[in-house]
# Entry
Amino acid sequence: MQKEKEFETNPEVIYLSEDSKTKSEEEKTKNENEEFGVEAKAAVDSRTYERPSFFIGVPIGIVFGGIGSKYESVFSIEYEGKTVVVLYHGLCLISAGDRLLIHGKWYKGKKLGIQGNVVIADRIEDLSSGIVFSHK
# Structure
């Protein structure tokens, strides 16, 4: 060990500054929520669900009204030898074996209660049929 300005240094130990710690934390969070754009193959057919989103009603003795809903599609893809779950907020009809070009955000599944990784897609191109599903 050498002494430099009242600090002991060891050439075998790497000392990290506060800046390098924050940079590694920023890179870690960036990797958890990174933009995802890749060509992949669908592993299963998509499932479409109707999700209640709002209720409009008028209470006059009894309640007259209705429930509004939105559609969500869920399917999985094969990416780098692993299965990844894809969620699309809207109607998306995909068949197993279709080649897809998917753009969206990549999330670690543990944060969402899923074992594995999840992509929340903004745009899905079905290269097999030429159909494009997009929010924009």
